[in-house]
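A.,

Following up on our hallway conversation. Structure tokens first:
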């Protein structure tokens, strides 16, 4: 059975179109954040006068994400997951709720911090600190 050039070209075009649709449909970093988190409001936005967010970052995040959030921490090379630059526009353009979900709930190699950071206000101070990394 001969393959017709038109059929092969049509099949290739359909495959390319399908891949393009999927590329723009799914989040680039693979995270699926539930709506309730996307829409969470940070009642403490912009606050962290006591440096709690920075302290929590240094304690729980710096070893992987690095001192300045570039994803170049001492443990980063041990991970299978490529770490995003926390100072990037891609990360910083996310809602506070999305950052909360990713930083506190986690997934895969990103651990869950609900038991380690129990206080809700402290969790938001961490998110505020993540925002400050871009400045």
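Then the amino acids I'd put at each of the 135 positions:
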């Amino acid at each position: 059975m001969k393959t017709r050039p038109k059929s092969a070209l049509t099949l290739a075009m359909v495959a390319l179109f399908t891949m393009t649709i999927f590329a723009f449909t799914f989040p680039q970093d693979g995270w699926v954040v539930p709506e309730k988190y996307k829409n969470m409001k940070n009642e403490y936005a912009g606050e962290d006068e006591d440096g709690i967010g920075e302290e929590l970052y240094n304690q729980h995040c710096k070893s992987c994400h690095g001192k300045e959030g570039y994803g170049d921490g001492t443990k980063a090379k041990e991970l299978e997951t490529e770490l995003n630059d926390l100072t990037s526009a891609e990360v910083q353009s996310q809602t506070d709720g999305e950052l909360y979900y990713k930083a506190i709930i986690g997934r895969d190699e990103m651990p869950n911090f609900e038991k380690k950071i129990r206080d809700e206000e402290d969790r938001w101070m961490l998110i505020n600190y993540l925002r400050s990394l871009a400045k």
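The chain has one domain: 27-132. Curious whether your intuition agrees with the design.

B.
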